[in-house]
Write a structure and sequence with these properties.
With 262 residues, this protein is of the alpha/beta class. It is built from 12 helices and 7 strands.
């Protein structure tokens, strides 16, 4: 079943979502792409990170279930090929790609083991796959939980813990699973859920929230209204800094998974 969230937010997505240079540089370093080889961006969305990589001479296919998102991506990356589809059913032959990325998309897959099996199938032996995702444990460390606890809980339920993720990857056939913590930077340019960790006032901006799937899909009107009121009051009174301090931790805000197909 195709998640309708991104068709709903896709037309305005690029107003607040763009490739962050630091994240893009880490993706490049972890994937280790080579010119002349073909790579897959699974869940490419509007093509923000794909654009960064193709601008540097790397060849990518983009796959996404949202036609609205792909319409934007085709304009942004005119020389690239895009396919409307889901991770669980990639309409391409075996061993087609020399590597793949899947950034901020894994939590939307409705059948994660099937999606991993499909990625394994379309990748060539010896290549790398890079995920950027999160765990429920990491989300419990977001200070946003203080204001939107049910939204954070629902979002965290969409992803496995690290051990389960490793097991799923191994069961799909991948090997050498490595992880790298990502901590949100103060100059972050891509406004995903916890991007404004250091700029709480940004969450009061409906344009910022509009591009974040958790706000679009997992918050209720009552929780959103009450949480925003509490957040605005705490910002005005200066209490927000103590809230942020209480949630400080070393778990990382997001997590890179880097795996190989032997």
């Amino acid at each position: 079943m195709i998640n309708p969230v991104y068709d709903r937010i896709g037309t305005t997505y690029n107003a607040t979502r763009r490739a962050d240079p630091y994240i893009a540089s880490r993706v490049t370093a972890l994937l280790q792409p080579e010119t002349g080889k073909l790579y897959l961006d699974m869940g490419c969305g509007t093509g923000n990170y794909m654009h960064y990589l193709t601008e540097r001479g790397f060849l990518f296919y983009g796959i996404d279930p949202s036609g609205t998102m792909l319409d934007v991506a085709r304009v942004k990356c005119p020389g690239s090929r895009f396919i409307k589809g889901e991770a669980e059913n990639i309409p391409l032959e075996d061993s087609h790609f020399d590597g793949a990325i899947a950034l901020f998309t894994f939590h939307h897959w409705h059948d994660k083991p099937s999606g991993l099996n499909e990625l394994f199938r379309v990748l060539k032996p010896g290549c790398r796959l890079v995920f950027l995702s999160f765990t429920a444990e990491q989300m419990d460390g977001y200070w946003l939980k203080h204001y939107f606890p049910e939204m954070i809980k629902r979002s965290g339920e969409l992803v496995p813990d690290q051990d389960t993720m490793r097991d799923m990857l191994h069961q799909a056939g991948f090997s050498a699973v490595e992880t790298e913590k990502y901590f949100v930077q103060e100059d972050l340019q891509d406004h995903f859920l916890y991007s404004n960790k250091f700029r709480p006032e940004q969450y009061l901006n409906p344009e910022i929230r509009k591009g974040i799937s958790s706000f679009a899909a997992f918050s209720t009107p009552d929780e959103l209204e009450q949480g925003l009121k509490r957040l605005e009051t705490d910002i005005q009174e200066g209490a927000i800094q103590e809230v942020i301090k209480n949630y400080n931790n070393e778990n990382g805000d997001y997590l890179f998974y880097v795996v190989s197909k032997a």
